[in-house]
Amino acid sequence: MHEFWHDEFQQIGTDYDSVEEVALYDTRMRQFRDIEAENRWIGELARLRPESRVLEIGTGTGAFARYAAARCQSVRAIDISTMMLEYAAGKAREENLANVAFERAGFLS
Global pTM? Predict the structure, then answer.
């Protein structure tokens, strides 16, 4: 890597050591945020259509990626946190969403 390239995989904020910790984080967020309403609002702004293909950068728990996958042709959701991605992919499997792919990547890659 060149010295002038930013290491986008360097964790800056909180990272989680297990999927269970991510689940607790997701539960805490849902206590004071209406995630479903936020997803609907973003979906309306993005004008999601059945033929849409979505890239979500920084997917976290994958809530919006899963929302979009239920309404779009396909979704690619990226994040640098392995545990967030594992949690999001597990939730997508539970919801039978086969058109969403979760990948460890950053904005630059």
Answer: 0.85
